[in-house]
Amino acid sequence: MGSPSSLDAVVSGAWRSFERAAVLGARVSPAVPVLFFGDVAAYSVSPLRVVTVGLNPSLREFPLSDPFQRFPLAVDTGHQDLGRYLEALAAYFRTNPYDKWFGSLEPLLNGMGASFYDRESSTVLHTDICSPVATDPTWSRLSEADRAVLVADGVPLWHELLEILQPNVVVLSVARQHLARIDFDKLAPWESIHCFDYTADGALRDRPYEVDGCWHAVGGEPSLFVFCPASQTPLGSITKIQRRELGSILADTHLRGW
């Protein structure tokens, strides 16, 4: 993984993006930018470094009734409080995480021997490819102009962050169109990793659930990027048992290497 000083520079970039987004009526406030969710120190020493990817933080991360209930250490932090800010991110899954969203990914991660919640040997981080800034409305309902402002900062920032994190596996559960935002060099084309043709009870699916993978070069090392079609929640179209099975398949795919 990259140096702490490099990470500090990306954190500063997240704060600049947050401040520039103040002109947008859609920026959630009070709030802080969320460069990533989770304990980066535990991630850095994990046997398998796994990063998950969404679009931008949910407005539910900063509830109106108590905006900092999920990030209590972030109250009154700013761009100069780098240490405390990172502590706030590290404590997220031990505090009051948005389980409805992150819990959907957990069975998949467990199948890889990884977890957001310190339940496995590897600690996972969550990132957002479009922006570290929470918005109201959600991404799909933002104006094109607002999205353009956020993406201009957010996409390059996400790439800088992944260069530092050097993940072994990157799991994206977003609309397929967002794969075009990935600007790392491809080592091979996207191809099918696994397809769920049947439901958990054995019925034939009207629409098979296909998971694709592609090796990219990140930080000078091969990284397995995995695309899992999204629904209302990540991997919502397959059961928890199937998600865990898929996690095991992804771990095996990574071990076989590029």
What would you say this structure looks like, in words?
The chain has 258 residues and is of the alpha/beta class. It has one domain. It is built from seven helices and nine strands, in the order ααβαααβββαβββββα. A hairpin with a 2-residue loop joins strand 8 and strand 9. Helix 5 crosses helix 7. The mean pLDDT is 94.
Task: Give the number of helices.
Answer: 7
**Span from first to last CA?**
20 Å
Order of helices and strands: HHEHHHEEEHEEEEEH
Q: Total domains, how many?
A: 1
Short description:
The chain is α/β, with parallel strands linked by helices and 258 residues long. The chain is built from 7 helices and 9 strands, in the order H-H-E-H-H-H-E-E-E-H-E-E-E-E-E-H. It has one domain (4-256).
Indicate the topology.
Layout: H1 4-20, H2 40-44, E1 50-54, H3 82-90, H4 92-95, H5 99-111, E2 114-115, E3 122-123, E4 125-128, H6 144-165, E5 169-172, E6 185-186, E7 191-198, E8 204-218, E9 221-227, H7 240-256
Parallel strand pairs: 1-4, 1-5, 2-3, 5-9
Antiparallel strand pairs: 6-8, 7-8, 8-9
Descriptive tags:
258 residues, 7-stranded mixed β-sheet, two-stranded parallel ribbon, 7 helices
